[in-house]
Amino acid sequence: MQRSPAQLRVLDAALALFGEYGISGTSLKMIADQIGVTKAAVYHQYKSKEEIVLAVAEHEFRHLEEALELAQRERSRTVAREKLLASVIDMAVTRRRWVRALQSDPVMVRLLAGDEALTSVLNQVYSVLIGGGTTPEARVSVALLAGAMGVSVVHPLVVDLDDETLKKALLKVARRTFEIPG
């Protein structure tokens, strides 16, 4: 969906605030104050905070969809998994604050679970990562990696690691988890 510059400013401000205060801790007034407009101006762009949350998720998930499309074009399942893992890890590390909101905020979890388009993207990502496998081990591997990635990018033990170091370490662990050579 094409968004206006005003809508993108609202989304950028909301994303920053969601990462810092969580979704529940962010008000429309805070978003308005962040971009220097009135609350009415924010309402002019989006009808509700829930609409902003979903728009932020859709905007961020666009990057995931692009990575998924590139991976799905690969003939080799191993190469597809490697590319998708590298992209997902890159997104998680460079968007650390967003990952925290995505993984742990109950509002986000509820809204994502109810959005068919976003759920479909996640299911496709999981399918590439586990190769369509539905064994308990395959599903647990993806769940462990997703959970570990979400927690590890914001964990106090790695908060001081630069992005490249963290990306390399996460990719190494992910390769072992999915038994991908590298």
Distinctive features:
182 residues; mainly alpha; 10 helices; 76% helix
Task: Give your account of this protein's structure.
By secondary structure, the chain is an all-alpha fold. The chain has helices spanning 5-21, 28-35, 39-45, 49-72, 77-94, 96-104, 106-114, 116-130, 136-152, 163-177. α1 (5-21) crosses α6 (96-104), α2 (28-35) crosses α3 and α4 (49-72) packs parallel to α8. The mean pLDDT is 86.
Query: What is the C-alpha radius of gyration, as a whole number of Å?
Result: 17 Å
**Uncertain runs:** none
Shape: globular
Question: Please, what is the average pLDDT?
Answer: 86
Helix % is over 70%
**Number of helices, counting only DSSP H or I runs of 4 residues or more:** 10
Q: Major beta sheet, specifics?
A: none
Query: What's the total count of β strands?
Result: 0
Task: List strands and helices in order, with pairings.
Elements: H1 5-21, H2 28-35, H3 39-45, H4 49-72, H5 77-94, H6 96-104, H7 106-114, H8 116-130, H9 136-152, H10 163-177
Helix pairs in contact: 1-2, 1-4, 1-6, 2-3, 4-5, 4-8, 5-8, 5-10
Outline:
With 182 residues, the chain is mainly alpha-helical. It is 76% helix and 0% strand. It has helices at 5-21, 28-35, 39-45, 49-72, 77-94, 96-104, 106-114, 116-130, 136-152, 163-177.
